[in-house]
Design a protein that fits this description.
Length: about 80
């Protein structure tokens, strides 16, 4: 049984679309870079904290400022602050 807290664990959507570096096709500062990074970050945000940390820090070479889980009584919401 896979460990759901592992950095290599992916959700069903993450497993179907494993692209996390598509923003690297563009140069920082380009409008397309920001759009591509936002799209990839939006997808990654649904994964577990270990996967998010490994992606942001090891692959994107950025600082992860925080990662939080919120529960509104119906669904769990995860917020990640990237720097």
């Amino acid at each position: 049984m896979p460990d759901k807290e592992s950095a290599s664990y992916l959700s069903a959507i993450g497993f179907i679309d494993q692209r996390v570096n598509s923003h690297k096709k563009f140069k920082p500062g380009d409008k397309t870079y920001i759009v591509a990074l936002s799209a990839v970050a939006s997808k990654v945000a649904y994964e577990n904290k270990a996967f998010i940390r490994a992606t942001v820090e090891d692959q994107w070479k950025m600082d992860l400022l925080g990662s939080y889980d919120f529960w509104n009584g119906k669904i769990s919401i995860q917020v990640n602050l990237n720097g």
